[in-house]
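DM between two lab members

TW: hey, do you still have the Permease entry open?
JB: yeah, one sec
JB: this one, 347 aa:
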Amino acid sequence: MTTTTEAASTEAASTEAASTEPGHRDAGDPRGGRFDSSLGLIMLLLVVVVAQGPVRRALSAPVAQSWMTVFTAVVLQALPFLVLGVLLSALIAVFVPPSFFARALPRRPAVAVPVAGVAGAVLPGCECASVPVAGALVRRGVTPAAALAFLLSAPAINPIVLTATAVAFPRQPQMVFARFVASLFVACAMGWLWQRLGRADWLRPPDRPAFHGHGKGAAFWASVRHDVMHAGGFLVVGAMAAATLKAVVPASWLRGAADDPVVSILALAVLAVLLSICSEADAFVAASLSQFSLTARLAFLVVGPMIDLKLFAMQTGTFGRGFALRFAPATFVLAVLVSTLVGAVLL
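TW: and the structure you got?
JB:
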């Protein structure tokens, strides 16, 4: 009797073990139809091989070529400066003590905003670099109004951008001064506006994994990896959107818009948002739009570094969607108004 029982137990155990093997699925197990990843990869490769003719023709179409060109250009222009911003962000997060910012910036937020706006001139990068740095400033306890003023001013008034503007407009040196004045004024005004009307629950504090217990070197590289993966993903999303819109907007719309002074300003402001060009290169694009007035091109140069598709995506990922949906439209409207006024006076 005991032998029979032991044999039955052994047989049941063998059956149970067999049922747990990778290749075994019970007929009644709903997981029996689960798709195997290796099989899926093989089928995908077969589909690509079979459909390579249509895929090649689709990729060789002018629209697809334009899309890939814009997407690659936006990513390649922005990526080095994104990495620069990530490195600066990690340096601030790991090596700069929080007490430094308390000493460097005035205690009164109304005064700290213009100081932070002027400090944006020291960051030699574009808007992709300013977002992670501004996030690090907020994490370090800097008042959000001052960090946002820095975020907006840094891509537009740093020496590299102003030098590129001077080279792009050799016969209009006033464009450099007009860009500096308009961009700095918008950055400070948005900082003061956030200080006055902004609410704490509109701005989500930037996430940061805890690196306690690590050495400074390990914490630095862990911070770099986190920010590259986080901000880089939103950069790719923004670049894809910019490339899609660039590929479908007819060029004839630009020629028609240049004839009306008001429409031309709005058209180039919207174009700056859609194209999402790096601030180190946007002056050369603006100079090529010679059918538009200098004021309209100034709006292009002021709006682009402050709000475009990739920047909106990165702001959403860093500070939250609620912040970006409020901050971006207000920045766009103020940048257009200030550009028009400064252009009327200086240009």
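TW: got it. Residues 2-10, 15-34 have pLDDT under 50 and may be disordered. The chain has 17 helices and no strands.
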